[in-house]
Specification:
The protein is an alpha/beta fold. The protein has 30 helices and 24 strands. Helix 15 (420-448) runs antiparallel to helix 20. The longest helix has 57 residues, at 596-652. It starts with 9 loop residues before the first strand and ends in a 7-residue tail after the last helix. The relative contact order is 0.09. Residues 875-881 have low confidence and may be disordered.
Length: 881
Amino acid sequence: MSDWNYPGAKWWKFDFHTHTPASSDFMAGCSQKDKDEVTAEFWLQRFMEKSIDCVAITDHNSGDWIDKLKDALQNIETDKPEWYRPIYLFPGVEISTHDDIHLLAIFSLDKSTENINSLVAAVGYQGTRGGNDDVTIKSSTEVIDFIVSQSGIAIPAHADKEKGLFQVLQGTSLRKVISREIHAVEICSDTFDKPQIYAEQNLSWAEVRGSDTHNFRSEKFGDFTWVKMDEPSIEGLKLALIDGSTSVNRDMASQPNKHAEFVIKSIEVSDAQYMGRGTPLICKFSPFLNTIIGGRGSGKSTLLEFMRFVMRRENEFSGQLQDGYQNYFSTDKNGLLTDSSNLRLIYHKGSTRYRLNWAADPQEPSLEEWDETAKNWFGIEGEIYSLFPARIYSQKQIYELAQNPQGLLGIINESSDVEFEVYRKAFQDCVNNCKQIAQKIKQLNQKITEESKLKGQLNDLTRQIEHIEKSGHKDVLRNYQLRKQQLSEIESVEQHWQALLENVREMLADADMAAVNEALFAAHPDILTALQSKQQQWQQQVDQIRQIIEQQNVDLRQWQQDKAQQGWMKTLNLELQQYEQLRTQLQQKEIDPQAYPDLLRRRTLTEKELQQTGSYRQQQEKLTKQYWGKITQAKNHRLELTERRKKFLEYILEGNQSVKITVQPFAESWADMEKKIRGILQTGNRFDKDFEALEQIVDDQGWEKVKEWVSDIRDNKQKAKDARFQTHLQGLPSESIADMRLWFPEDALHITYGKDGAAIRKGSPGQKSAALLAFILAYGDEPLLLDQPEDDLDNDLIYSLIVQNIKATKSKRQIVVVTHNANIVVNGDSEMVHCLGVANGQSYITSNSLQSEDIRGRICNTLEGGKEAFEQRYKRIHLES
């Protein structure tokens, strides 16, 4: 078998029928050279290269090669050549009985050549050892009884072929043989129909295959049967054969040792209050079914909860369970941990090994990874809860889930097939878009509601403008404004004239001629004469300018005097006076003529705003369509979620006879609906009469009518039972209204169990728990840890619902069960049994497979129905050695 690092029962490749050169017909038809090549080492190498784990050495009426093969195997195990792999040799023989059938006899690993040859002699075989040319003195029934008396296993060889039981014997002779202690038969053809007499006896022998190798070139060489055992032994083989299909598998192409990707390898507890003091308590797990048993108070549930704790899944509890759990695992004197406690859990994800730690010392790393090269652990970062999936259910959690099966939706939603996170994001996008659109619509509505106000303003502005314009004010005002502008322009020009005169005066104030130093030019009088001449010219010109300026000043004063007498000035003043007279008249009618330009401007703006309201209405219509489109889209997302849930359950429970779950769309209870609606509408516990009316609407017309009814009340289309409810709804923000329109009831789960399809809601607490456990077992590939799932269940339910589902599931996921019920341990075929006991106030653990006599004894002495479970499973096998 492949490399295996896990304890407990596992599957081994077992060749039940082989031959060596001790059989006279071995290598028949081959050359002497080929025959000489087959040494004991060569023989073993061939089987090792075929990856066979266990070989029954069954030569014809001889055990001569058994010791040779054992000695050769011992040498190979010492030298370990490249092709070496472990192999177990089961001494045996193929006996030719007096009634001319062949029987395989298989014995414990410690038997020798002498033991087997003595057996052959004891049954009266008188032919050549290694040949099949003669038969025993004893009959088949006598040979079988003798094999069993020697603690061996009797298996009819190639029963469907020549010299086979079903081909040679019939009637009374066959009935006598099949009534003996036989638990397995070698069948060569997968399509062989066993005789009627076999079926009439209600026999169910395990069907095995062997290579029956006489030549390594044979196509059958390498044929085997998968057999489930702990370490291969004759007792383990007996138990496996009696188990039949549970522990024997003829399908050579199958991979029964293949296990889930996620596996808990071990839990180590150090220095807890009642566990791991002095010596750590270490529990190593099989990747298949592990059962934890022990007396009351032995620490079984505590061990499971320590695993929950180190995997950081303590927040999976709710309400009072959470409070109790926190107290349970405190480090004070009432808790189960101490200030020096350490919990270490090794978790495999595929080929990578991690160690999850909890320690009272915060300096300890919480997560480590194994370095295969360095052969040590190194700390890494990571969030344990999300990185290391597992499902852990205490008995109380199972009970709570049974009381409210709707809680299964949370488990269903975690499936990647359901794509709940994809739905949640898409749905939330719809919600966000709806609320954004609703806010824009609200803003547009506010603008649209201004329309009547704007129309009133426009009418008033138009009235004032018309009064002004009918009075003739328009022409007068136009003349007035022109004359005012003209007057202003005249005054501006006059001011400019005055400013020019002032500027020139200031300039001329400093216009005296420069003084000349005549002494400098005494030697040159001609230069001085030229300068003085030019100075006189400049002075004359400056004097002329002063005269001009004075004349201009006189002219300006004259302009002012003459202007008032000009006809154009009189006309200008007259038109100004006419406007003032008209303004006085309009003011007496409470019309401000000076506001005329502003009135015109305001009327233009108001007209534009009124025109814009039309655009607002178009935008509103467009956004409203988008709004309802998003709500429809949200509903479609919700319907898709329901369909994915349906398909997921159909796939997971296909062929499951224990439990059926169907999804009823939007069918949650009114009590759950009411809680959500009250939360959305922010009503608290008020308006009971209106909610009673809503409940009736749901019953009569369906949940969607509830949305219409709430909207109609808010929009005054429907009367509320309590008028205050309407007022409350009208005061809600648009976001709440959007939430109400985007509310959809949760799906309901209709669960039935058993072959009769009884509804779980009508079942007892035990029946409810059993049905829910059947689903929990069926779904998922992460490790599943259960604490006493059999509580409140009778044995029929335990076997029909729990045990059968465990057996069907454990190859797909690792299961760890704390239990008091032997049915789960024994008939569930637990690969590893962990027995907890208490000594000196500390829990201790003993672990092994069901093949262990010690474990079987503990099961019988500790568990409810222990012996009965073994009797049901192992029939006539005694628990004693």
